[in-house]
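Collaborator request log, item 7. Partner lab (contact: R.S.) asked for a structural prediction of Glutamyl-tRNA(Gln) amidotransferase subunit A 2 to inform their binding assays.
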Amino acid sequence: MSSAADSFTLQEATIEDIHAAYAAGRLTARQLVQMYIDRIEAYDRGGPGINSIITVNPAALDEADRLDAAFKASGKVGPLHGIPVLIKDQADLKGTPTTLGSLVFKDYYPDRDSRVVEKLKEAGAIVLAKTTLGELGAGDTHGSLFGSTRNPYDLERTVGGSSGGSGAAVSANFGTVGIGQEGLASIRRPSTWNCIAGMRPTAGLVSRSGVYSGWPQEAGSLGPMARTVRDMAVLLDVMVGYDGDDPITSRGVGHAPPSYTDFLDAEGLRGARIGILRTPMGYNTDPEAEDFKSITGVLDNAVEELRAAGAEVVDPVELARLNELLATRCANPTAGETAFGIYMARSANPPYRTREEAMQSPEFAKLSDQAKVRLRVTADPADHYQYLLARDHLMIHLLKTMAEHRLDAIVHKAVEHQPTLIADGVKPPYVNHKARRT
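Returned to partner:
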């Protein structure tokens, strides 16, 4: 590596930092990719053993060479030129397995890129590696293929789930930015617990074709994870867009701005009316636990920062019947099986065509309990109907509260407890949503 590249600081480097170094001739994409690979070897595979990376893309250095040549010839090919991206191992990248963190899928090599990977490549990004996840996208970041992922801030604690590998890897500087997938809190919880920025876009903004748990399921959304809000916005700009293979993206047509970076305005909160929702709503949350109170303190500080930024704060606001309505959550009784078939049908020779075939794998017995449930899950159509009614009522209560208080947004805790211990999450009673009371 050249002395110029030696002067580049990898830790906490942003997209803007990297592009400035490329423009100044201080860094090449090949050098940057190699720096990240070396860091993965030192700190993810070795050293503290964060264990957040399942597969490093074997074509990453070749992609970097191609982009370096293009940059020398005509400049950046797109807004993510030469930016190494980490992606949850739930989305397909041709040439690498999509393992879903599971022994059942360890040898599955898709023959097409997912749509989000296609868009990343079109923008000049380098998909550097596939990250760990809650097995089959379920729960905390443990899996029969890789074990458990450790929190960079406390190696005995979890990174959250299910996009915990992307959260930990971005936090530990194994790539510039990352991508997760969320159905409930699978981006927001690991982003919070790994001290990075992350968001779950509204369903329909980002295509999920070539991603496990896609259409016709509605809840799952791919979203950006980054160390800065600006990098998150730049990544989201690239990810959004209509895709006929994921019909839910028709909902997003006409709703994406020219650029999400246009909203990065230091004065943007001045005069905004923000409601603070303080009702506990996490699974088995314990408002008397010390770590719940610690998180409340963090929220209180954030509320004061909102006021300091010029927002008008309405504290608290309430949503009628919130926890009663949330308790009706229920999966679509047919969408999971249909989505599995659509996902597998993208490959010419899929390892399984149905969930039942996957459960016949000799490796199935080694799956985590949550992953087994994810494959087996069925639901009563009557329960699902009640959930749909409850979802509609909850939306009405939300809009009513916003209308009555003239709110622009509602703020609540992304999580209600601090990161749990890995040891508590891998054995009964599988505590991964709240800390034990001390």
